[in-house]
Specification:
The chain is built from 4 helices and 2 strands; from the N terminus they run αααββα. It is mainly alpha-helical. GO terms for molecular function: ATP binding; long-chain fatty acid transmembrane transporter activity; long-chain fatty acid-CoA ligase activity.
Length: 101
């Protein structure tokens, strides 16, 4: 049985062992982000307020990296871009009331 598992799944087990540290680090990061966001949302604050708090604490740090083009944005640049989109949609869409007739 052990020989069967080693022969058929040995490569998978070996690669899993090699990437275990990276995978556990990524899992830990995701859990920290999830618990931090839940804590902040329990404070009954909007997501935009949480975002602005993070932006103000990390103005010149990298926020996003586009893997395809290699372009990166700092939190300050990302906030400016997000505000441009928000203002575009604020102007472009009118309030629509949906009701039954």
């Amino acid at each position: 049985m052990a020989a069967y598992i080693a022969y058929n799944y040995g490569d998978f087990i070996y690669r899993s062992y090699l990437t275990l540290n990276r995978d556990l680090s990524g899992l830990l990061l995701l859990l920290r982000v999830k618990f931090d966001l839940n804590r902040r949302l329990r404070e009954n604050r909007g997501i935009h307020e949480i975002f602005l708090e993070i932006v103000n604490a990390n103005l010149n740090k990298t926020a996003i990296i586009d893997v395809h083009s290699g372009r990166s944005l700092t939190f300050s640049e990302f906030n400016e871009l997000a505000n441009k989109f928000a203002n575009y949609f604020k102007v472009s869409f009118k309030k629509v009331t949906v009701g039954y007739h």
